[in-house]
Amino acid sequence: MTDIYESDKILSEYLLFHFGNRDEILTDDFSWPAGMTDSLEFPVRTVAYFSKAPAERGLDLGCAVGRSAFEMARNCQEVVGIDFSHAFINAAEAMRRGDTLFYDRHDEATRVTRLAAQLPDGSDGAKLSFLQGDAMNLADDIGMFDRVHAANLLCRLTEPEKLLARLPHLVKPSGELVLATPCTWLEEFTPPENWPATGTFEWLMATLSPSFSLVKRANEPFLIRETARKFQWTTSLVTVWQRHG
Ligand SMILES: C[S@@+](CC[C@H](N)C(=O)[O-])C[C@H]1O[C@@H](n2cnc3c(N)ncnc32)[C@H](O)[C@@H]1O
Question: Does the beta carbon of 161 lie inside 6 Å of ligand 1?
Answer without folding.
Answer: no
